[in-house]
Amino acid sequence: MTGDPSEAFARLGDATRMEILDALAAVDEGCVRRVTRGFTDLFEATDAETTAGFSYHLRQLRDEYVEEVEDGYRLTYAGLAVVRETAAGTFTERFDHDPISVPDPCPFCEGALVATGEDNVLTVACDDCDRDVLALPFPPGGHATHDDEALLDAFDRHHRHRVQVFREGSCPECGGATDRAVEMSDERPRATFECTACGDGLRCPVALTVLEHPAVVSLYHEHGEDVRDHPVWNVGPEWTETVLSEEPVCVRVGVRVGEDHLAVLVGEDCSVVHTERTTVDPQESEAADPTAA
Ligand SMILES: [Zn+2]
Ligand SMILES: [Zn+2]
């Protein structure tokens, strides 16, 4: 069944209908879940003055948002999605943020980074070289529930996770199949993802797509470090990207921790095609590192 979006939204345009949807959801063990309620119980949970008026509004919500079941009414998938998205402020909240100082240095000049928010988009930029390092949306629920200190961490986690889900071929927003590619842009390789269902997408350095690869996680872990401490706006100077081939694209992402160097080869569809660990002789100079970019 596919409905008309403008009609579907029009049916939500009433306060009593929104009350009905809210009354059919309850927080259970920390999760918002559907609850089934009988007609009278549901009527009493709203401000509707007459059962006739209430019935009319309930009819408008069926069968798109509310369905009738044996012992009453309950939300459909779409009804639950409306309750969650409205609670998270997706359609109604707009957050702007005064500059927050970012504890990590600028990846270009090692200057001071600041994060500012405008219309739910957070931009991390350098005060010294004036460059924008990244600008990405962050849902209103994230802005509303994290204080300044926790916001940057949450923003970092959110986008690392998005990159990984995209890289594995599905959309973090809607679950749709995702087109993945490594493309050359201004002579630099960029990983690009685009959802074939909702159109959500992302472009980022290739290195960000391998942060959660087991070989990378274990390299840091063996050295008593955690790769998650390296935020997406500056993963650290130990990372390099080298284009081995443009047709088809193949990029070697290199990362060195202590005396260990890891090369991760990424193919044109963003898949990791090979990994190789080597130990760098500490007596030798950096230039002698066989896999350094
Ligand atoms: Zn800078
Ligand atoms: Zn999608």
Task: Describe the model.
- With about 290 residues, the protein is of the alpha+beta class.
- Helices cover about 25% and strands about 35% of the residues.
- The protein has helices spanning about 5-10, 15-25, 40-45, 50-60, 75-85, 140-145, 150-165, 215-220, and strands at about 25-30, 30-35, 65-70, 70-75, 95-105, 110-120, 120-125, 130-135, 180-185, 190-195, 200-205, 240-245, 250-255, 260-265, 270-280.
- The strands form five sheets. It has a four-stranded antiparallel sheet with strand order 5-6-7-8, covered by helices on one side. It has a four-stranded antiparallel sheet with strand order 12-13-14-15, with helices on one face.
- Bound molecules: zinc ion (2 copies).
- One zinc ion (ZN) binds near residues 171, 174 and 195.
- One zinc ion binds near residues 106, 109, 111, 128 and 129.
Question: What would you call the shape?
Answer: elongated
Query: Which percent bin holds the helix content?
Result: 25-40%
Indicate the mean pLDDT.
Answer: 92
Relevant CATH superfamily of the largest domain: Winged helix-like DNA-binding domain superfamily/Winged helix DNA-binding domain
H/E topology pattern: HHEEHHEEHEEEEHHEEEHEEEE
Main beta-sheet annotation: 4 strands, antiparallel
Strand order in the largest sheet: 5-6-7-8
Number of strands: 15
Give the radius of gyration.
25 Å
User: What class do helices, strands and sheet pairing give?
Assistant: alpha+beta
CATH topology term of the largest domain: Arc Repressor Mutant, subunit A
CA-CA gap between termini: 53 Å
Bound molecules: zinc ion
